[in-house]
Design brief:
heterodimer; A: about 400 residues; alpha+beta; 3-stranded antiparallel β-sheet; 16 helices; about 50% helix; B: alpha/beta; Beta Polymerase, domain 2; 5-stranded mixed β-sheet; two-stranded parallel sheet; about 30% strand; elongated
Chain lengths: ~400, ~160
């Protein structure tokens, strides 16, 4: 480390040469998917260095969590990754249940409903990722198609939970309510409607030659770099590693469900390029559809709704876990979401909560993979990482 | 590799004083490591073929309370090939009234992902990391005063003329 400068950032800025230009992309720029600011040192059209600046959406999640009870924190957990609220609260709730030791007492129907809504949310989140990726590259139509299909999922989840985006549906020990009557049938209808739509989307975007030319062999992320930077989720799987916490940890109802883990194969270029990351998300939607079908099957047959079934029956009156440290992780659409708890065993509020957000790690690799690319490719790379700034900044 | 074997491995390599404490009471057990040795221990755990903790899942700064006057960092490691997890901790007593910050060795060279996490711990807890290449605030503005997640934190009244 050069002792002349206190930080690497100072060195980069001070030693930029006269023919280089430092430009800011964001924070108000549609292709940064939120309020991300990228300070880019460019030499003409070539990107020499990318320095991300974040924090514009910092809402003190960890500070809030240290002042609220576990049940009260669920809405805050929802607001971290606002495109996949169900998955966020599921991870939080699972962590608290494990600390209390009640994770084995959760009724099967509740577990299956949780998986069902989480997978619906995963599809809607991936649809946003794919649609906005299309628009980043310059394809407008897929964006509208994806939002049209996502609207159905939002309506269904609104029907179940009462809100469109931030659900507060999964509670410690159970659920807010049982699914509304007729939800399973409506969901089945949606799945039947949705399957051919994915074929259309593939024809429109996935196999589109312009799209492939823009994304294949761009932003290649080698596997060792991905692991070293802590990338998880579709980012890591696109680099060719089968690592999915739904299979590794076998939590909730996932051990009883059948699904594959799609990985990047480098069909259009090298393994781990932007197209692979896009394709892994497409394949994951297919797998989520498969999971939803299996959940519906069981929810309509042996786990059928009964009048006396109460999803709040197991709700603990007071949540006071014994004194311990616990790290709980789960697979969200963007990768491994973890919560690290420190509890003192006396109070209803945790002593310390740390959220390990997948987007935070996935974003950190950006300066590594975008050195020497064109500015237009940098936009393609940001889109393929699929960040949610609510989660990066927490 | 079980926790007992990992302990033996570390003691054999770095001597008995490297492990200060062991916590096995909760759901996940943790090892408290001597603060000066943490980077070497992490290197060993990552590169040893029997442990192979190649993924740093989480790194959290911790303020253990005003009476304890203790700061710490918690490392949650995972091994992808062995599908195992391990928690490491370092702690240090540090008087809050002191001018300088509590400092630990950086593990950036072991896992690059630690870079942003350590910046976050610096930003929110005021924990400094030795040999960190780019120790700046990450979530808060550069001219923010104080470290918000410390237990004795009082927010400043005005920030650039805006009431906080």
């Amino acid at each position: 480390m050069d002792t002349k400068y206190a930080t690497r950032y100072d060195k980069l800025i001070a030693e930029a040469e006269t023919h280089e230009m430092i430009i800011n992309i964001g924070p108000q720029h549609p292709s940064t998917h939120g309020v991300l600011r990228l300070e880019v040192i460019t030499d003409g059209e070539i990107v020499k260095e990318v320095i991300p600046h974040m924090g514009y959406l910092h809402r003190c999640f960890e500070k809030h969590a240290e002042n609220l009870t576990y049940q009260q924190t669920i809405p805050f957990a929802d607001r971290m990754d606002y495109l996949a609220s169900m998955n966020n609260s599921h991870a939080w709730v699972m962590g608290v249940e494990k600390m209390l030791g009640i994770d084995k007492d959760i009724p099967k129907r509740v577990e299956y409903i949780r998986v069902l809504v989480c997978e619906l949310n995963r599809i809607s989140s991936h649809l946003i990722a794919l649609g906005t990726y299309g628009i980043d590259i310059g394809a407008f139509t897929p964006f509208l198609w994806c939002f049209r299909d996502r609207e159905h999922i939002m309506n269904m989840l609104e029907w179940a939970s009462g809100s469109r985006l931030l659900y507060n549906y999964i509670w410690v020990g159970g659920l807010y309510y049982d699914l509304p009557v007729g939800f399973e049938e409506r969901c089945k209808q949606f799945i039947n409607y949705f399957k051919p739509k994915m074929v259309e989307l593939n024809a429109l975007l996935t196999d589109n030659q312009i799209f492939i030319s823009r994304t294949a062999n761009v932003g290649i992320l080698p596997l060792d770099v991905a692991i070293n930077y802590g990338c998880t989720g579709p980012m890591l799987r696109a680099s060719g590693l089968k690592w999915d916490l739904r299979r590794v940890d076998e939590y909730s109802a996932y051990p009883e469900l059948e699904f594959d883990i799609p990985v990047g194969k480098g069909e259009m270029g090298a393994i781990g390029d932007c197209w692979d990351r896009y394709k892994v998300r497409i394949d994951e939607i297919e797998q989520s559809v498969k999971i939803i079908e299996q959940c519906l099957e069981r929810l309509q047959k042996d786990l059928k709704r009964t009048p006396e079934f109460d999803p709040r029956a197991k709700l603990p009156k007071k949540i006071i876990p014994k004194a311990q440290d616990f790290y709980c992780r789960a697979e969200t659409p963007r990768g491994e979401l973890g919560y690290y708890f420190i509890t003192d065993g006396k109070s209803e509020i945790p002593k310390r909560v740390k959220a390990r957000a997948p987007s935070f790690h996935n974003l950190s690799v950006i300066s590594e993979i975008s050195r020497g690319v064109l500015i237009a490719d940098l936009i393609a790379i940001i889109g393929s990482i699929d960040i949610v700034l609510g989660e990066v900044d927490r | 590799m079980s926790l007992e074997e990992i302990k033996q491995l570390l003691v054999g390599k770095f001597g008995a004083e490297v492990i200060i404490k062991e916590e096995t009471g909760g759901l996940q057990s943790a090892l408290t490591i001597h603060p000066d040795k943490i980077a070497d221990v992490c290197f060993e755990l990552r590169d040893n073929e029997q442990t192979y903790f190649d993924l740093l899942e989480c790194l959290s700064g911790v303020d253990y309370g005003i009476e304890e006057n203790m700061f710490g960092v918690v490392y949650n490691l995972a091994s992808i090939p062995y599908k195992t997890q391990l928690t490491l901790k370092v702690v240090k007593y540090h008087d809050r009234t002191r001018e300088d910050l509590p400092s630990f060795p950086s593990v950036c060279t072991v896992w690059r992902t630690a870079e942003w996490h350590e910046r976050e711990a610096f930003d929110l807890f005021g924990i400094s990391f030795k040999d960190h290449p780019d120790l700046r605030r990450i979530l808060l503005p550069d001219d923010w005063e104080g470290y918000p997640l410390r237990k004795d934190y009082k927010a400043q009244e005005y920030y650039r003329g805006i009431k906080v």
